[in-house]
Design brief:
The protein is of the alpha/beta class and 491 residues long. The protein has a 7-stranded mixed sheet with strand order 15-16-17-14-13-19-20, sandwiched between helices. A hairpin with a 4-residue loop joins β4 and β5. The longest helix is centred in the first third of the chain and has 30 residues. Bound molecules: nicotinamide-adenine-dinucleotide.
Length: 491
């Protein structure tokens, strides 16, 4: 018997008129029935969000009251974090030790934006006209279409919903068709927190019927998207119609640069976490290791040892460190690219296939390291979204910077060095939206997140993100009591 989930539109839970089955990646078997939103459902959800935007139940709330609703939502996410973590693990195969830690932290994003709601201030302007006052107001941008990919859906939606709701926007959130269970369950918490109907609607479905209808809808004012660059291009084409604002958080091929002055063992722990954490299914996966020649062989040896010791197993087992990948389609892409890289001269240090004890057609893929002779090996440029590390060697700092910047992406970079001056030089030289020095994959609601180049547009996190969900209204006030002169009488 499949478990059934509902969509949430205009404050009501609905079974949906069409459905699809969600597959448990650990078993490859369907386990739940999801509603697939149709274009008609999308239209109702957007219209509900548009009505709610202007209804006094939401637009009449003070910013402080909006913040209190967000704080309540944060409490409920904390309360139900174990349940949400189980659902995410079941539906996406992300291991339970990671979903528990991540969803516990998701509540902090709602708490942070709860506190920011009444701090989005306009400005008084010292205008250059006598008898005039001018000021700006920060008003909600409008109806937001938030679209997330299958990995870390609760986290990737919190970085959109938190700032959007703090700013007074209303939202239609589209969960991914792969693994939507945690977001459909989260809708119940939105309801329980007491948000007025239509302020936040949660649907799921496929790109064409659901995503396209949503992003091209005439009543949508902003699309906040996380996903792949090809989908982002569709969205940008769709928003040519409604001229909606967009923020795009896309993929990456993030370099981790290791100089020969570091403690190799300590750096290797960050590198392993950066590429094999979440089975490499992370936009900020540190998938290109650039290592100074003097420590390259030693570091590769340590990494291969640590990769071999990673506990691979059932995602629901708290001892499991690496679980399955979400879809077979993704594994096929990884296998093809690994093979093409070996054909192009890369040496397979470890992995490259299903791990020992797992069937070749399972959703599992072993931690893989490719020692690459040059930067034109396919694995150096292609985003795997899986547990594959491509290694290149360098001699000088200038060479490391050139290799790091030789990418169409620019999401994140890691630098490992004990030379403080060099650390700062690299921070300046790297063309990425995030630079981690002697650490990797650390995030916080307080710090903006986003990329350069093909990695996207706009930032999530921090005050910057909240302001991006507002628009400025400029106000002029004539403070003179003198009658306004007739403009057509010559003086
Ligand atoms: P995807 O682009 O295939 O899908 C993302 C979402 O877009 C899904 O909800 C999908 O239904 C929807 N969609 C598909 N076609 C659409 C269309 N025509 N119009 C509107 N919406 C449409 O991505 P994916 O395979 O689910 O996720 C993996 C990608 O996400 C990777 O490239 C990864 O790097 C990226 N990612 C980025 C970040 C980040 O913060 N930068 C975080 C996680 C993942």
């Amino acid at each position: 018997m499949l478990q059934t989930f509902s969509q949430y539109i205009d404050g009501a839970f609905e079974p949906g008129s069409t459905h699809f089955d969600s597959v448990d990646p650990a078993t490859g078997e369907p386990w739940a029935r999801m509603p697939a939103a149709t274009a008609e459902d999308v239209d109702r959800a957007v219209r509900a969000a548009h009505r709610a935007l202007h209804a006094p139940a939401w637009s009449g709330l003070t910013a402080t009251a909006r913040g209190k609703l967000l704080a309540r939502l944060a409490e409920l996410v904390s309360r139900d974090a174990p349940l949400l973590a189980e659902l995410e693990t079941r539906d996406t195969g992300k291991v339970i030790r990671e979903t528990r830690a991540q969803i516990g932290y998701v509540a902090e994003y709602y708490r942070y934006y709860a506190g920011l709601a009444d701090k989005l201030e306009g400005r008084h302007l010292p205008v250059d006209k006598a008898d005039m006052e001018a000021y700006t107001r920060r008003e909600p941008l409008g109806v937001v279409a938030a679209i997330v990919p299958w990995n870390s859906q609760l986290f990737l939606s919190a970085v959109k919903l938190g700032p959007a709701l703090a700013a007074g926007c209303t939202v239609v959130l589209k969960a991914s068709e792969e693994g939507p269970a945690p977001l459909l369950a989260f809708a119940k918490l939105v309801h329980e927190a007491g948000f007025p109907p239509g302020v936040l609607n949660v649907i799921t479905g496929f790109g064409e019927a659901c995503g396209q209808a949503l992003t091209s809808h005439p009543l949508v004012d902003k699309v906040a998207f996380t996903g792949g660059p090809d989908t982002a291009r569709h969205i940008v084409r769709n928003t040519a119609e409604n001229l909606a604002d967009t923020s795009l958080e896309l993929g990456g091929k993030s370099p981790v640069i290791v100089f020969d002055d570091v403690d190799v063992d300590s750096a290797s722990n960050s590198i392993v976490a950066g590429i094999f954490g979440a089975s490499g299914q992370s936009c900020v996966a540190g998938s290109r290791l650039l290592v100074q020649r003097g420590v390259a062989d030693r570091l590769l040896g340590v990494l291969a040892d640590k990769a071999a010791r990673i506990r691979i197993g059932a995602p629901g087992d708290p001892a499991t460190e690496m679980g399955p990948l979400a879809t077979r389609k993704q594994i096929a892409h990884i296998e093809r690219t690994v093979q093409a890289s070996v054909d192009a001269g890369a040496r397979l240090v470890c992995g490259g296939r299903a791990p020992e004890g797992f069937a070749a057609d399972s959703h599992y893929f072993a931690p893989t390291i490719l020692d690459c002779p040059h930067a034109d090996v396919p694995s150096v440029r292609t985003e795997f979204f899986g547990p594959v590390l491509s290694v290149l060697r360098f001699d000088t700092e200038a060479e490391a910077i050139a290799l790091a910047n030789d990418s169409a992406y620019g999401l994140a970079a890691g630098v490992f060095t004990t030379n403080l001056a060099r650390g700062h030089r690299l921070v300046r030289a790297l063309r990425t939206g995030i630079v981690w020095v002697n650490t990797y994959r650390v995030v916080s609601p307080i710090v903006p997140f986003g990329g350069f180049g093909l990695s996207g547009l706009g930032r999530e996190g921090g005050m910057e993100a909240a302001l991006a969900y507002t628009r400025t209204k400029s106000v002029w006030i004539n403070t003179s009591d003198a009658p306004i002169p007739d403009p057509f009488v010559m003086r």
